[in-house]
Design goal:
Blueprint (H helix, E strand, L loop, with lengths): L2 H16 L4 H26 L3 E3 L5 E3 H5 L6
Antiparallel strand pairs: 1-2
Helix pairs in contact: 1-2
Length: 73
């Protein structure tokens, strides 16, 4: 998702608050929002996969290795 897409999301949000959106614009807005949310989730998962936890016994567990093998978005 690039800056142009984010600007378009913001433009559609402003327009929906003022004059309303056509059916095509609502569909475009929903598509862009889905893509944005998918990208945020992917970035968050990547960050969480890098977290290491020190266990009570002194060992270190990487959460990405422990939980990160689930199906990716």
């Amino acid at each position: 998702m690039n800056e142009k897409d984010i600007a378009r999301i913001n433009e559609l949000a402003r327009k929906s608050k003022t004059t309303g959106l056509s059916a095509a614009e609502k569909e475009e807005q929903a598509k862009l929002r889905r893509e944005y949310i998918a990208r945020v989730r992917m970035n968050l998962r990547s960050q969480l996969d890098q977290i290491d936890i020190k266990e009570a016994d002194g060992s270190i567990t990487n959460l990405g290795e422990k939980y990160g093998h689930k199906a990716k978005h």
